[in-house]
Amino acid sequence: MSVNEKVALGRLERFERSGQQVLFIFAAARLAVTVLENGLLRVRYAPQGQFRPRRSWAVARDDQEFAGSDFSIEENSETIKLKTACLEIAVRRGDGGIELRDASGRVMLQDAPEQGPEFAASGRLRSLKVLPTGEYYYGFGERTGLLDKRGYRYTCWNVDPVDNNLDHGPGADNMYQSIPFYMALRPGEGGFGLFLNNTFKSVFDVGNSKIDRLAIEAEGGELDYYLFYGPDPATILSLYTSLTGHTPLPPRWALGYHQSRWSYYPEERVREIARQFRERSIPAEVIHLDIDYMDGYRVFTWDNRRFPDPARFSRDLAEQGFKLVTIIDPGVKYEPGGDFAVFNEGLEKDYFIAGKDGQPFQGYVWPDDSVFPDFARAEVRRWWGDLHKSLLESGVRGIWNDMNEPSISSVPFGQAGPHIEIPGDTLQGNRAEPATHAEIHNIYGWLEDMATYQGLRRLRPNERPFVLTRAGYAGIQRWAAVWTGDNSSVWEHLEMAIAQLANLALSGVSFAGTDIGGFWGSSGPELWARWIQLGAFSPFCRGHAADGTPNKEPWEWGEEVEAIVRKYLELRYRLMPYLYSLFEENSRTGTPVLRPPLFHFWQDTTTLQLGDEVMLGEALLLAPVYRPGLDRRLVYLPQPANWYDFWTGLPVSGPYLVAMAPLDTLPLFVRGGSIVPFGPVMQYSDERPLDQLTLEIYLDQNGQASGQLYEDDGLSFDYEQGQSCRTAYLVNTNSGGQVRISANRTGNFQPPTRPVEIRLHPLTGDIRIARLERDENQWEIEL
Ligand code: GLC
């Protein structure tokens, strides 16, 4: 994007402090720097002198909602500096550029000396930053390619990168989600995060056009960004998610295995799938109904021939522990004069996005000619949310929002033709808060997800909603889980999935997963077996497949793979206490469930590019095999830490090792110092209460370990009223080698009566086992 007719800021004329904000008045523009918290700053430019009003759909918390922090101001002939306890931001008098330093004076982020921020009369804007050598970049939302994002150009503009491998390959640019946030880290030093609070199309050029420059550009809106100081990734992410929001604790069933296909119908086929899982004892919990459950792809309807009695059908499935999730697309079938109530009501109430001629914008999606609700209006979101009533009454438990970039074709579906977009100058929002599609496009799906989440919550006030989405923008974690769209059944996409989930996690989106086994195509048993080894540890765990591909359910690959799928899904269910505790932590702090090793080990330089290993919580390290024909792989054990092989329970030495990985083995390691709570194998998460607990304890070099278990009813919001409990486990070894294990539970939720099995893994390798007949709120034993 080149910025012609640029508006320069000119020289600084004066500045004024008011509370947490300092307003810099330049000859031709204004800049506001706000100290929101000690390590959190907001930088906003108003080239026309006027800051844009806050949007009702803004993802960010308002400035007043932050505690603020002390800061002092120092001036010299070149800059004005604002100093907090951990940061210093200098504003250049000459061009309004900024320089960020940590408390020790180290430059963290610097506007290019040759060029301050630029603004064009067209609304385009550009900020050029220095890209220091030896700095690594992460985040940018849903991206293909490797873990470190340096050297590429990232467009933020939601699209449906249609249907071929290349579109999801390493060369892909933008996909379904746009998250203009990144994290920059330097070896040994850590770093900071930057969020561009702008929903218009934007681009981050991370040393792609110029190797030592990072360009941030947008086609409209404001140059408005937040800076989050770590220096560690956990602090950066906790500040970023304190701004853009946390994922509410999902219903526990949503953490189970989901089985999907485009499409399972009629209902006998779905019953058959459910029966197969139970007969074969392969744990599974959720079945997704793709577009063919609807009557002619009309949203919020059922095809009554395929599903004659959805309520009875869902009740029968529920008896076997299965929950139903149905797909919803935002495109509403255009059917004037017909009896499609959703279309008629939307038209009558003027809820659809309309073009300049006042007529609803039309484009092709599954139901062919379709119109699109204007989710930027609160009354439309409320209407849409309420439409879910009939689905819930039919026993549907969760909603899968697809095609919400929105993905629109210029020709009827099934014919080859280019995708189109709603024109950027189309008006959206209500009269009091008008916006253009150019501003709304990236949050179109986000707003639909918000409507869905809030609708489900209104309709079932004491049941936690589950919403899955394809499109999203920063903060999407507040409304929905995310899957990474239409990947392919190819090894490259399995490899890519590891870094993709890691970078989504570092972008605040933790509840995410890929289509296990790949959506398009079908490349056979070995790939499925390897994919489930990553998928079983993905926060969102769903097998899905495209129309026209062969059956891909776990038993379709032969007995060996079926046994492998069973083994990993059983492990996922056994790990449910650990997994659920991680989700609970994520809902409070933004700490992702799945995370790259650098999240903890950023001071170990090797982790900064370690994109083919990933951690589940602080304890587990997975090194998935993502190439065919291999029965071993190289593993790096992040340092400093001692590690255990999960399968043998014995210590291993590193930092490098070659792990044996025959087809049924995922190289899986546990960090010394961890306590991992396990439950019994279950076929679905509410098959039985957590009436058997196993604590696997892995000692660190000092003979210590710690861990946590969070419990509640798994479904309602009663935990918000104190109906939850948390148990802290602590292990110490005294000088005589005696190991003391203690548990301390706080909170009102009463776990079931249960025994506790304790399995102690010391560095010596002699595993010791103890059994407590009855778990209590407090206990202590010696081993
Ligand atoms: C889109 C979705 C895919 C779904 C298909 C049919 O391609 O990404 O998951 O199966 O539409 O609804």
Helix fraction bin: 10-25%
User: Widest sheet: strand order?
Assistant: 35-34-32-27-23-22-21-37-36
Bound molecules: alpha-D-glucopyranose
Shape: globular
Count of alpha and pi helical runs: 13
Distance between the termini: 66 Å
Mean pLDDT metric: 96
| Strand count | 53
Unreliable spans are none
Explain what you see:
The strands form twelve sheets. The protein has a nine-stranded parallel β-sheet with strand order 35-34-32-27-23-22-21-37-36. The longest helix has 16 residues, at 444-459. The chain has 783 residues and is α+β, with helices and mostly antiparallel strands. The chain contains 13 helices and 53 strands. Bound molecules: alpha-D-glucopyranose. The site of alpha-D-glucopyranose has 9 residues, from loops. Alpha-D-glucopyranose binds next to loops.
Topology summary:
Elements: E1 6-7, E2 12-18, E3 21-26, E4 30-37, E5 40-46, E6 72-75, E7 79-83, E8 87-92, E9 98-102, E10 107-110, E11 118-120, E12 125-130, E13 136-139, E14 153-156, E15 177-178, E16 181-186, E17 190-196, E18 202-206, E19 213-218, E20 223-229, H1 233-244, E21 257-259, H2 267-279, E22 286-289, H3 310-319, E23 323-328, E24 332-333, H4 341-348, E25 363-365, E26 368-371, H5 378-387, H6 389-393, E27 396-401, E28 408-409, E29 419-420, E30 427-428, E31 435-436, H7 437-440, H8 444-459, E32 467-469, E33 472-473, E34 481-483, H9 491-505, E35 512-513, E36 515-516, H10 525-535, E37 541-543, H11 559-574, H12 576-589, E38 594-595, H13 598-601, E39 614-616, E40 620-622, E41 632-636, E42 643-645, E43 651-652, E44 656-660, E45 668-671, E46 674-678, E47 693-698, E48 705-712, E49 724-733, E50 739-747, E51 756-761, E52 768-772, E53 778-782
Parallel strand pairs: 15-33, 21-22, 21-37, 22-23, 23-27, 27-32, 32-34, 34-35, 36-37, 47-51
Antiparallel strand pairs: 1-11, 2-3, 3-4, 4-5, 5-20, 6-7, 7-8, 8-9, 9-10, 11-12, 12-19, 13-16, 14-18, 16-17, 17-20, 18-19, 24-26, 25-26, 28-29, 30-31, 38-39, 39-40, 40-45, 41-44, 42-43, 42-45, 46-47, 48-49, 49-50, 50-53, 51-52
Helix pairs in contact: 5-8, 10-11
The structure holds alpha-D-glucopyranose.
